[in-house]
Amino acid sequence: DTEVTQTPKHLVMGMTNKKSLKCEQHMGHRAMYWYKQKAKKPPELMFVYSYEKLSINESVPSRFSPECPNSSLLNLHLHALQPEDSALYLCASSQVGIQGYEQYFGPGTRLTVT
Amino acid sequence: AQSVSQHNHHVILSEAASLELGCNYSYGGTVNLFWYVQYPGQHLQLLLKYFSGDPLVKGIKGFEAEFIKSKFSFNLRKPSVQWSDTAEYFCAVVEGSQGNLIFGKGTKLSVKP
Asked: Mutate which of B88, B91, B93, B98 to test chain A, going by most A C-beta atoms within 10 A?
């Protein structure tokens, strides 16, 4: 099973709402990632979790709050977002090690902030 | 920091034409390189990868890429494209020990039937 699943597929939220994005993988990967992808642009890294610990935060505003409750799950909590945060949010996972490993991507959550 | 350049923003080809998409990364040493494809409305899929060894790498769907260390390049090729190859293609390089992927800006490939 090389699948990364994400829910929901689409999300529309107001600027005062609180919502969460979920990501799950069952490949035994110990690294998980959140990316943001705007239309016609490449994915941009937001957060990296390695062994359930936050290892990279690419200067993401605090209105985005990641959480890794266990080795298979990754959440992204959203609060007080701005319209410019509308984008496709991608989750990915990979093995961890000295040798590089490929990342497997989920289908993404398309977020619209109104 | 690493950066990735993809030279072509939009490539338009007829079916059966040959394809080569350029990719250059900014600095050397040990590099892990990838090509990902994003078909319309679908998620990113790995086409091929290079970690070490044979610089000519074969991937899925008839794609291949050649790693040329002296040119900091990792160009993607396919001898004969099909309409179903219409997609966005991203070159990426790993930066750092956390596996942080740095993507190029992407090349949109349109194949005319």
From this structure: B98
